Every structure is written in structure tokens, then in C-alpha cells.
């Protein structure tokens, strides 16, 4: 799973969000390392919807503009949990190897 996809699913784990809300949350979660452009986000949301990982939650009109909210599906939650475990396992391996490289002090 690519990092932007992981961050989108993580943003939605807190509850339904509209597109701009997802973009803002991804920026916050990534500590400003990842900024999604609207076209990139909506392409990803279409793909994630087709995969059954997210689904539309509701729509509302704000200032004359349609705002669509998305939420995680049970499959999306499962995918996020699996990827979180995979990343944790990889981080543990990396940390173990880094500790082995550090000079030992007596």
C-alpha cells in the first residue's frame, strides 16, 4: 500500500470526512510531508471505493457547493489494520538492525 493511500485510510479511521477535510488531515498526519492535490485525492477515493475500502457517507450543500463525505468500510478497516501491522513489523526489524550498528559502550 502506498503512503498516500495509508494516510487517506488513516484519516477516515477518525470518522467520515469530505475531500478537503481528508486533504487537511493527511497534511497533519504526515507532519506536512504529504500534500494531496484534489485530483490525486479523488482518483484515490474512486479507486478505494471500487476496491470496497471506502464508501460515500453523505452529501451536503455548503455555500452552493456539494460536499461529499466518505467513510471506511469494514474492509477498509481490515486493510488499514493489516498495513499498520506490516509497517510495525518492518519498523521493528529496522530498529533491531540499527541497534546492532551502534557502538557498544562499556
Nutshell version of this structure?
The chain is of the alpha+beta class and 106 residues long. Helix content is 59%, strand content 18%.
Please, could you describe this protein's structure?
This protein is α+β, with helices and mostly antiparallel strands. It has one domain (3-101): Winged helix-like DNA-binding domain superfamily/Winged helix DNA-binding domain (Arc Repressor Mutant, subunit A, Orthogonal Bundle), CATH 1.10.10. It is built from 4 helices and 3 strands. The chain has a 3-stranded antiparallel sheet with strand order 1-3-2. A hairpin with a 2-residue loop joins strand 2 (54-62) and strand 3. The longest helix has 28 residues, at 74-101. The protein starts with a helix and ends in a 5-residue tail after the last helix. The relative contact order is 0.15.
Could you give the order of strands across the largest sheet? Answer: 1-3-2
CATH class: Mainly Alpha
Question: Which residue ranges are poorly predicted, with pLDDT under 50 across at least 5 consecutive positions?
Answer: none
Percent helix, as a range, is 55-70%
* Major sheet size, sense and barrel closure: 3 strands, antiparallel
Write down the secondary-structure element order: HEHHEEH
Structural class: alpha+beta
Number of domains: 1
Strand portion: 15-25%
Helix segment tally: 4
Total strand count, please? 3
Enter the CATH topology name: Arc Repressor Mutant, subunit A
CATH homologous superfamily assignment? Winged helix-like DNA-binding domain superfamily/Winged helix DNA-binding domain
Mean pLDDT: 94
The CATH architecture is Orthogonal Bundle
Please tell me what the overall shape is: elongated
What integer value in Å does the Rg equal? 17 Å
Distance between the termini: 42 Å
Protein name: Transcriptional regulator PadR-like family protein
Domain Transcription regulator PadR N-terminal: 8-81
Pfam family, one: PadR
Amino acid at each position: 500500500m502506498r503512503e498516500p493511500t495509508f494516510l487517506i485510510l488513516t484519516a477516515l479511521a477518525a470518522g467520515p470526512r469530505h475531500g478537503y477535510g481528508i486533504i487537511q488531515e493527511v497534511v497533519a498526519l504526515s507532519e506536512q510531508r504529504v500534500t494531496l492535490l484534489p485530483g490525486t485525492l479523488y482518483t484515490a477515493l474512486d479507486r478505494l471505493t471500487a476496491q470496497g475500502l471506502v464508501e460515500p457517507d453523505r452529501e451536503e450543500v455548503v455555500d452552493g457547493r456539494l460536499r461529499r463525505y466518505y467513510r471506511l468500510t469494514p474492509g477498509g478497516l481490515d486493510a488499514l489494520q493489516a498495513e499498520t501491522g506490516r509497517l510495525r513489523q518492518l519498523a521493528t526489524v529496522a530498529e533491531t538492525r540499527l541497534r546492532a550498528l551502534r557502538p557498544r559502550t562499556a
